[in-house]
Every structure is written in C-alpha cells, then in structure tokens.
Design brief:
Elements lengths: L6 H6 L4 H11 L11 E7 L2 E7 L8 E6 L2 E6 L20 E6 L4 E9 L2 E8 L30
Antiparallel strand pairs: 1-2, 2-7, 3-4, 4-5, 6-7
Length: 155
Amino acid sequence: MRSFDLAPLYRATVGFDQIADLMDRLLTQDVSTTNYPPYNIEKLADGGWRISIAVAGFSSDELSAEVRENALIVTARKADDAAERKFLHRGIATRAFERRFHLADHVRVTGASHVDGMLHIDLVKEVPEALKPRRIEIAKAVPQDANLVEAKAVN
C-alpha cells in the first residue's frame, strides 16, 4: 500500500500548486481504473494534439464531450435497445463510460468528429499575447561632446 502525504509540499512552495495537484492526482489514482474505451493521444504540430477514442457501437447522439475546469470529459451512454436480442457472442462492449483528460493552461478544444467508430477531439495551445515573450528594442545612447557648453540666452 502506497500512501504519500504531500501537505508539506503545499506549505513549502508558492506557485507550484498545479504540479502538486498533478502529483497528488497521480499518486491517489485508483488502481482498479478501467482502460475502457481505448484511446490514443497524438501530437499533430507545435502546440496541437488529437485525442482519438475507440467508440465502436455508439452513435454521435450517444456521445458527449465537454470542457470543465481544465478537464476534458468524454461520456457515452447507450440508449436502451427496445428489441430483445439474443447474442451468441458479444465482443463489442457498448457499456457507458466517462473518460477524463486533464488539460494544461491555455489548451483549447478546437473541434470533435465521429468517423468510422472513432471519436477524434482536436486540441491546440493558445498562449495569450500578454504571456508570449516579446523583444524589447534597446535605444542607443547619443554620444555627447565633453567640450560643449550649453547656455541659455538671458535677454
């Protein structure tokens, strides 16, 4: 049994709350969490990602994706099948699920599509202008002549 107390980390640091929260979330994650449905995360370009979730057997109406408090939450609930069917083998799992993905700051969901049994969710990192590095122009000093004396006219 592993149990770590991160309380001293919270008391001794300032501004690292997200790192401490991430470590706390990873360390307290339930070991019995399910791997259903399987998913891929791929990097498309600088600052762009795609999450692909295998959702065979679900229609677009039965899927839901929302962003709440820096978390992407994907849920699916299969509608009750009115027809009583008798399966000889049932290998396609269509059980309800909820999958959460923690998003970093300034990561925004740009779109989602449901194609060929795969739910694709596109993300991009958009850093605000105020946080982007900017170059500051340094003005050159004008050399002054040491022998020059300036005087104002009195009359």
